[in-house]
Amino acid sequence: MKDNFYITTPIYYTNWIPHIGHAYSTIIADTIARYQKISWRNVKFSTWVDENSQKAVLEAEKLDMKVMPYLDVMAGKHKWVWDGLKINYTDFIRTTEKRHHEFVRSVLQTSFDKWDIYQWEYEWMYCVWCEWFKKDDDLVYLNKETNETFPISDKVKVTENIIKVCPDHLKTPDIIKEKNYFFKLSAYEDKLLEYYENNPEFVVPSDRFNEVIAFTKRGLEDFSISRETNKFGIKLPFDEEQVTYVWYDALFNYLTVCQNWDEDFWPANLHVVGKDIIRFHAIYWPAMLLSAWYELPKQILTTWFFTVDGQKISKSIWNIIDPVDFSEKYSKDLLTLYLLCSFNIWQDWDFDQYQAVLAYNAKLANNLGNLVNRVVVLTLKLNLENGLTWEIDIDIKNKLDSYINNYNKSIESYNLKEALETSFSFLDDINKYVDTNEPWKLIKDESKREEVINIFFTISESLRQVWMNLYSFFPEKMWELFTKIWLENYSEQLEDWKLEELRSKEEIFMIKEKWEALFLRFELD
Ligand code: MSP
Lower CB count within 10 Å: N or C terminus of the chain? Predict the structure, then answer.
């Protein structure tokens, strides 16, 4: 009986076409989903677009389009990007879908009936671009003449040229005076702290979790969940003059896709989110779920940010790297390898095409590619007959066992960088083993044939294991490889969740003809 595994990407706004930073979270989720699938789990992998936002309405206005046709185009573009990157999602949902509206309205009603939602009139600053309320402390001063910013703590006098702006968007927030509905987050402080204590891995990496805990301990404020001036969105079931915005609307997406009567995927095993939205996922979201009587997600993986040439990725400075263009220029494998192996997820990094090519050439073209070539040449020279017996080198066997152990630990804890690094470091060991044993010299001596056969099978068994582990990262190339070496039904068997079974097989593979290098080196412009 298979366990269910449910993983989600962040909910992307549709006023953007996904860029390299968005592709990062999605490729992480896709890789984890594939690993879970081949490891005998029933996988649900959902991705989405966050459509009921004020930003989208403004973008549509700018383009002189009606909102819905604009959103249709943008949802199509998002799908096009994920399909272009061969992302294997099982659900793609839009927040404008009817099933989502109905579900959100039912949860809102549940929390309203429980007195967790109440009405209040207030005045606040609001940044449309963040879709978030701002306090004075959240802003910076901008000198409009020099374009310099400086902290609000400087207590400078506001003039025509010196204005208070949102630090991320450099725009003056709107002043909003409205009667809104609020969610009683303050009532959930103790329950949240109790959940954090009982689930010490709820948010990873742990530094981010500590911040969440400290923030909660300082005391939680209720937050607004509706707008009276916005007209585009999901109407509150208990006050049709208002629409929900951001929180109920976006977050409950994660549950809308779990409403099929014949599936049971909630609670989610993993939400992958960026560091800017961790507070909402680790504090607001669980509180809203508790209020509506749902179980809480098991874990949240937080990623940091990419910059391009040291700058925040932004439409206005046009430093967006299109992930599909990039993987067409090089390859999807190069993109995956660079994103997943070169960066720690708990740090901001600069996306550097030069480094991406270097990493690919070193790890896939040289380290793995060369070893594969060596095996091809060796096996063609050996001209192997069927029914051979062979013994794996004991030292390599120990290394292999410890490698598989480390790989399993890393990937099961969603540490993809470590899973890849441990694979490449094991390949280094194999390359060294080949260098030391020099089978191409031994082969010239007929009396050493048995020894060479053992060396060959030691390498090939090691490679077979590495390939299966790399399958979650580079499925197409591994598929191609399995076919070339006459382990033809491997990919199908993996897709049929048979990783463990295949791992324990002692399998011989055949190479019948020389082939082109698997991973071609890229020259740097
Ligand atoms: N729709 C909201 C989330 C609502 S949750 C209630 C949103 N959307 S977003 O499109 O702006 O961002 C989606 C995800 O992309 C976030 O997790 C964000 O951290 C991530 N990234 C956006 N820019 C990024 C980089 N430059 N680098 C890495 N991740 C980045 O926020």
Answer: N
